[in-house]
Amino acid sequence: MAGPGLRFAGGSALRCEHRSSRVRRAAEDTMGELFTKYYRLQEVNRNLEAKQTKVAVVSELLEVLDDLERGASQDIMIRRGLGRKFVGQWARPPS
After folding, report:
1. For residue range 30-76, what is the model confidence (pLDDT) as tens digits?
2. How many Å apart are CA 45 and CA 91, to the nearest integer?
């Protein structure tokens, strides 16, 4: 009876080892999947930050261009007004 009991105990230990190696492999696979997902998420975040930075820079440039355009249109209006004034003074007959 000792013989069959030892075999059973040994078989049980082998089954336990086999089970623990499966659990270990499953845990390693899960950790690998989690690492891959984390890496992809970090990559997506980096891309998103880069796009947000580009949008912010373009927005600031548009504001500057709007200011320049506004200033140029005011400058044209001032020049037209000065031109009319200047032409008006020369168009008067000398006194």
Report:
1. 888 999 999 999 999 999 999 999 999 999 999 998 988 888 888 77
2. 68
The span from the CA of 73 to the CA of 79, in Å, is: 10
Q: What are the tokens at 85?
A: 């004034």
Q: In the structure encoding, which two tokens stand for residue 75, read together? A: 């400058």
**In three state form, how does the secondary structure of 1-48 look?**
CHHHHHHHHHHHHHHHHHHHHHHHHHHHHHHHHHHHHHHHHHHHHHHH
Tokens found for residue 43: 């990559």
| Distances, alpha carbon 20 to alpha carbons 24, 27, 28, 73, in Å | 6, 10, 12, 78
